[in-house]
Amino acid sequence: MSVTDAMAVPNDDAPVLEVPKRSRRKGKYNAKEVGLAFAFLVPSLAVFVTFFYVPFARLVSWGTYESQRGGASYKQVGIDQYTDVLGGNEFRQGLWHSLQFVLYTVPAGLILGTLLAVAAHRRLKGIKVFQAIFSSTLASSVAVSSVIFFFLFNPAVGFFQVSWQSDPSWAMFAAALPAIWQNLGLAFVIVLAGLQAVPDEVMEAARLDGYGAWRRLTRITLPLISPVLMFLFVILVIYGFQAFAQIDIITKGGPGGATETLVFKIFKQTQDYGKGAVLSVGLFCVTLVVTFFQFAILDRRVHYGDE
Amino acid sequence: MATSDVSKGAAELGMGQSPARRNLGLIGQYGSLGLLSLLVLGPIALTVIQALSPPFTYVNEGKPLHPVAVSWQDRTWFTGGPISLIVRTLIVVALLAWLQKVASGGGWKDGALRAPSRLVAIIGGTVVLALAMNPLFQSFFKADGNTLMIYVGAVLAVAATQVWGFLSPTRSPITSVVMALFTGFGLISFCVLTMGPTVWTLAWTRYDLGPAMGRSFVMAILITVLQVATAIMAAYAFVFLRFPFKRILFALFMATLLLPIEVTLVGNVATIRQLEWTDTMQALVLPFGAAALGTFLIRQGFRGLPSEIQDATRLDGYGHWAFLTKFAVPLTRPVIAAFTVISALAAWNQYLWPRSVITQNSFNTLQIQLRLASASEVANANQAIAAALVAAVPVVLLLIAFQRQIIRGLTAGAVK
Amino acid sequence: MASVTFDAVSKRYGEVTAVDDLNLAIEDGEFMVLLGPSGCGKTTALRMIAGLEDISDGKLLIGDEVVNDVDPSRRDISMVFQSYALYPHMTVQRNIESPLLVRSYHVDGNDRPARKLNKAERDERVAEAARVLDLEPYLKRKPAALSGGQRQRVALARAFVGRPKVFLMDEPLSNLDAKLRAQTRIELVELHARVGTTVVYVTHDQVEAMTMATRVAVMSMGKLQQVGTPQEVYARPVNTFVAQFIGTPPMNCFPGKIAADGSQIEVEGGTLPLPAGLVAVPAAGSTITVGVRPEHLEVSGEGSLGVEVRAVEWLGHECLISTSIGDANVVIREAGMSASQTGSSLRLSVDPANVHLFDPNTTLRIG
Predict the structure, then answer these.
(1) Of the residues B52, B380, B405, C69, which has the fewest C-beta atoms closer than 10 A?
(2) Model-level pTM?
(3) What is the ipTM metric for this complex?
(4) Which pLDDT value is given to residue A14?
(5) Are residues B11 and B43 in the same domain?
(6) Domain count, chain B
(7) CATH class held by domain A83-301
(8) Is B47 in the A-facing interface, judged by CB distances under 8 Å?
């Protein structure tokens, strides 16, 4: 090997010139290319405009109309309906019920998902079988899991004949149970992916340092996978706020409206466009806050991916 | 012994420990994994028991009820006509082939199944099982049926066909025998549970699961095809084409993530009613014809393509369409596959939207049909439960076939 | 085969000028190496020939045709990329065949319209390219199953198969290990000798430039510095940049002054002779930059220049002795083992033919 070969350094022009990787050919647009681009974007745009933006715009304006005689006609009431409904009992109640659902499902999902993932993240003969079992609830839909739990805890014919579904203080828990069970697979898969991304060297170093299993978990593993847990947290919160089938199948909003979440109330209002619109805008604001977190996390992840 | 293999695998975990302690630790690990499995599978196991239990005690005394008992008697391996016989046989063949493939440690392509020992195991196992099922089914309703003896005999007969296929230089013969016994027991029990009781077919016909499943299939496939196609096209435009207002348009795409169907439900339901599209397939499909998530994921995939590959295709003379179909899509197949599968899963599981735009039960998708089943008479709960279990089968198959893609799709964004 | 001509070509990205007013005539059949450090514009120049970059100003000709607005695939050129840009999902066979599938060729003579090749013609060309580059055993494999050297040969075969007028190569050896790189250099020269096609080769590695080029074009900061055979560029660098870029270790440049009598150069620690054959000697007393290559500084007891040894690096076949003249580091290259010790003093002498003078303000060569 000659000295010169050893001194050769990798060349690359772009960083020095600071030319963006893909947009090297800046400047004038090519008519054919622009035409192709818009042909490619139009299908998506058509869907987004027709079923996302236009309906939302209509909702915002419908919020200012109050339904008369059960939706037969509408009267413009301006911003009043917004302040009335969003400040009123019903919205607050729906939000509280949604929050209850979230409080039942999210911590359970995080804890059980971590438990399953930590248990199944090890070199052991046959561990693949356990991993398959733990992720198996991914195969159930919300309707399937709801029906299963509806009958498992049915006061008349259930395996566990408890009256949770008709008890106002237990009904929400009964509706959340299938969600908790169904989220196990998702939570497990996500946390396991996080654990698998932790380099083996880190754990080996901790072992050499004399950390026991519990300390390794709390001092090293959990902090290292905290971004993943955060991601899971956001997903579970979104799922929680969007939950509908469990309530529709298990409690039908009852007893006495004790399980009417925000989405359930919106579903009930698809006849009264005015009030339904205001509740929808309310849900949008909640989604906005949650999605903001989601984006922050996604964005950071994506930048890791670009490296 | 099997345990020696196990401790070999776990040797690194238990380094520096005495064998006794290590074995104790292994028992603890497997024990806790078993307990957790019970937590996950428990509800399903109990539900299967519920579905197979005789009709429940009558509620609503005085109303006419139509309890249908779980019956085993009219089943033999050959009932149900040629089609169900073929389906039944194919399922058993597929299961045996899969087990043999897993045991051989190879893939479908490297010809592991072409070894004569494995072919014999698959074909022989199927024949023996088919022959053994008839006396077994019949023994269930004969007082002196000797069910247990026939059961054990059937398990042993099927196991005998499998041992040769499981033998391998890396595995002790005893392990192979144990694996064969488990295979025989699992397969016979699987056939007894799925092909024996009538409750599955009863639920299928009673709740019209066939047509409902068909509608769900069509809906899920249409939504998936549309989402994948629109996402690929849009992502291609965003990555490889130059056009004005790119950033604004991309922001417009991503902002739809803020407008899930729960938020726009009232507005979209109004649109569908105005178009008089209630109870139509287009009402179920079109609002989900494009997905920002797909555009985002596939765009990431496209951006990961080396720019020199694109340069090389330009020199070779490939145009945009050829580059898209021959290079961009094949080279980002993992990303596209992952999105396809999670998109299909989400479409299949749709609940709120179909529930809102379907007014006639005859147009119900599978998920909505399940709600109907659960809302019917509690006395026939076992059939409603059976319907739920049957409804889960397609997704279970999807999960088995595309496990890697599903997991990649679900964890996209969680880790790199 | 064709010449390539840059006629006052510039390339700007907004504020940044990547290539500035480039005039360069690459002759038919030549092996031209564009040499320069990272960011000097050489790759941009190459990509402009390929048509992968638009030309901001000036004209680019391939043969007699102005190709500024000709699509890359119609320029009858081919390119080997730094990363090889093999299509990972295609077999070697399909990779090599790829340009033949979509491009049209003047196979029926230049007066007949270009057409696409038929299957038999394609197979024949792929087979020939595979034979020339020893790829026959690997045709059914995918690139991932090949070694780095094999991948590089596939990239060459893909470029070779279309029998283009011009081969463009963008650092094709930079991903190979040193041993393979040295071997491939020789193979590339042989390949060029056999096919005789014009080659434009971009590299930052001056060893590649010196060993393979018929002519070298040295670039810096988007500007062409010097064009010439490797010998010319080595022996008569036009400015201190070229002087220090070519040669390893680089040429020593240090300040000096023309002596009052105009007969020699005064530097710190002694004197040096004026270069032979100067057309016009700079005025006596004027400051200049003196350049001497490490291999031209001879250690001898009667040397006219005294220096102190700072460090001795023994490399086996030679020694590099570090010293300084004024503030400038000066390296002396001595064959074999050196008797010099760190901290000792040395006398140096230089053959007048090996002394280079540069203007300290313009950095240009004097004489």
Answers:
(1) C69
(2) 0.83
(3) 0.83
(4) 36
(5) yes
(6) 3
(7) mainly alpha
(8) yes
